[in-house]
User: Fold this.
Amino acid sequence: MNNLLIITKNVETNAGIGRYSFEVVRALFEQGYVATILVERNSVCNAVPNEISIHAVLYPPHSFFSLFRNIIISRRYARKYKMVHALDGWPFAIYGYAAVVGSSKRLFISALGSYAVAPLSYIAKRLLLVRAYRRAQRIFCISAYTQSRLLKIVSLTNTNVVPLATSTLKILSKSDADEIVRHYGIVAQTPVFLTVGQIKERKGQLDTLKALNLLKRHHPNFLYVMIGSGEEKGYIGLIHAYMKEQRLQKNVLLIMDSRDDSVPAFFYSRCDVFLLNANSEKSHFEGFGLVILEAAQYGRPSIGSRGSGIEDAIKDGYNGFLTGQKEYQEIAAKIEIILKDYARFSENAREFASRFSWRNTVDNYILDYNSSL
Assistant:
């Protein structure tokens, strides 16, 4: 068996980096790699194989002192390993760099999007992160767009694009599905639209709702479901204000208490179109759009934004459409095209999702692991 140290935030499947980390660890294990994983304290770590050692020892990086402690912790754990893989830029690449600097140990970094690029705008973080990037044997960028944004800021020759993949979600029993219907008071409405992801400006739920409001004349009974954490209270307040102003209260369902895959799986299987009309905010952007592939495995076509990593998750005109950011009229028009030719777009969505697998993702990692020996 091959051994390596992985440093990440958590392996919890109800959030982006956690789902990515969990699937990578599991796929690597299936390929003969046993990883020791460092995650932040208070992380839930029950789902990974028992043979994998998880240590919830990292402090949330809220201060320089916490960052320094995590550097010491990472370096101590790395003593037993010749290979370290940090599963994002800031701050995990810094921990990885600290774990290998001054040694012959090999460092690999995954660049997942904003947190691989945005910290480069700050002098202190840039000094550390650039050192980590240049020390790495390989930086795995999850989309061509993420790679391009990184290379605009830092001159690097060690990047490679390795996309993410779909995760097989659980099949709900009838009793589980009935419980979700009861808990959220769901009534029969059609068509159903869905966004999964933190409810905030960068995910663009309000922009999506404004586009859907343009369709209300022809689809008065539509339902728009937003599933995600609700830390951005101001943005959620704007959504509620718009709902009240446009009398859309019966057309919107906000779900902010989902703790596992059951609720997303329920709505993936019942929605008609998945929407991720994400916005780029300076150095922050959508790195890939993994949820688009999750919806596609259920045969759900998607609409997402140009000028982001979503361009790698949607083949324009095939499994959905790419639109301009905040282009409400364009978004609405593309929704109508999909609904009128739904069977074709649905079949294409399933086919497109089948091109991506976590086995393919980690096989690309392993090629670089081995070539750096």
